[in-house]
Design brief:
mainly alpha, 19 helices, two-stranded antiparallel ribbon
Length: 472
Amino acid sequence: MTIPDRITLRCVSLMLLTVGGLVVVGSRRNRSLGLGSMHTGSWYLVWFGIGFGLTSLAWRRQQGDASARIAQESVLLTLLFLHAALIAWLLGYLVGPGWLMTRLGRRIASGAVRVDETRVRGTSTPWILFGISVLGRLIQLMGGRFGYVGDPSQLLTNPASTGQLVSVMFQCGDYALIVAAIAFVQQRTAVSRTTLITLTAAQVLLGGLAGGKQSFILAVLAPAMVLAAHGRFPWKVTSVALAIFVVGFAPFIQAYRENSRSADYTLAPSDAFRQAPAVLENTLAQDETSRFEATIDLMSERTRQIDSFAVVVQTTPTQYAYRPLTDYLYAPVLGLVPRMIWPSKPVISSGADFARIHFGAGPGIHTSAAIPPVADLHRHGGLLVLLVGMFVIGVSVRLLDRTLHPRHDLRLAVIYFPFFIQFIKSEADITSMVAGLPVTLLAAFLVCRLAFRPTADPNHPASPPNLTVKPA
C-alpha cells in the first residue's frame, strides 16, 4: 500500500474506534449517547475523532507552510500512538475514579452549591458578572491590548502583575450567561428571557471586537448546557447559531484579524475598532458560498491537531530530549501564586515556545501553537508516559461527569462548564491545564457565593440539590 492509502486506513480506523468508544461510553446515557446531555466523555470522543481522525486525512498529501517539516511517515507512526492513547483513555473512563476521588468530587460539589442557596440572587446578578468581565477588558485595553487585537509581545516580555486577575474577570462573561440561563429556567419570565438574549448578544459582540472566534461558541454553549441539563439540548437554536457562525461570524473574524495584524504592522485597538464596520461590510459583500467554503477550510485546518503531535514524535528524543516530569509538579504553584506577590514568576509560554522550536516561528512572529495533551505527554517521556497520562485523563473526565455534571444541580454548571471546555478543546499542555485548575475552582466558588441566595420563604424551603452519585 502507498503511504497515502495507509494514512487513510489508519484515519478511518481511528474514527471507527472513537465511534465504538462513543457507543460504549454513551449507551448508558440516553438516545443521544450523552451528546444531548453535554457529558464531557461523549463530546471528548467526538472531538478526538474529528481533531485526530477526520482532519488528518489531509495528510494524504504532504502539507506545506509550517507543517512542511513533518514527514508523512511520522504521521503514520503518530496515528498508531493515537490508537493506543485512545484505548488508554477509554480504559480510564470505564474503570472510573474510585471511591476516594468520587468522594472528593462530591465534597467539591457540596461546597460550591450549598443546600440553602438555590435561587439566583436577583435580576441584576448576571449583569454584575457581565460588568466584571467588561471591566477586565477595559483594564486590558488600557495596556494596549484587547484580546487578539493590539501588541501581543508584552505577554511574553512584560507580563502584567494583574494578568491572572484579568483572566478570571474575562471568564465572568461566560459565568454571567450560565447564571442568566439558570434564572430563566427557574423563573420563565420575560425579564429573564430578555436578559439571557441580551447578554448572549453582548458577549458575542465583545468577543468579535476582541478578534476571537471562540467567544461565539462559548456564548452559545454556556446557556445551551444549562438548558440541556434541565430538559433537552436546544438543537434548533444551536443549528441557527452554527449557520451564522460559518457564513458570517468566522469569515468576519478572519478578515478582521488580517486587517488588525500582519508581519509588517499591528493596529492599535482603537484603529482596529474604527475599521471593523468596513471589514464587516466587505465580508458580507462576498458570495455566501465562497464564505462557507473558506470557513470550512479554515476550521478544518484549525481543528487538525495531529500536526503538533506528529512533530513531537518526529523530533523527540532524537533531536530534543524528553522534558522532565517535574514540570507537572510545580504547575499548581505557578497557578496559585499571583504575579503581584511573585514578580519574577516564570511566564507560561508553552505555545509560543512550541511554535518557535517545532514549527520555526521567527522571533518577530508572536503566535501560540496548540499543544494537545497527547503531544505534551509524549514529549515528557514517550509512549509509557502517554498511556499512563491518557488513562489518568480518562479517569478525570469520568470524575467530572460523575460528580459535577449539572444534571445533579443546575448550579454546578458554573464549575462544570470551564472544565468541559478545557477537556474538549484540548489545545493546552498539561502544565497550563494544571496551573489553571486552582484559580478556576476558586473563581467558580466565588461566583456561586455571589450568584445564589437562600430561599426567600423559610416556611417553604427549596428541595436540596441532588448530589448523589449516579452511575456514569
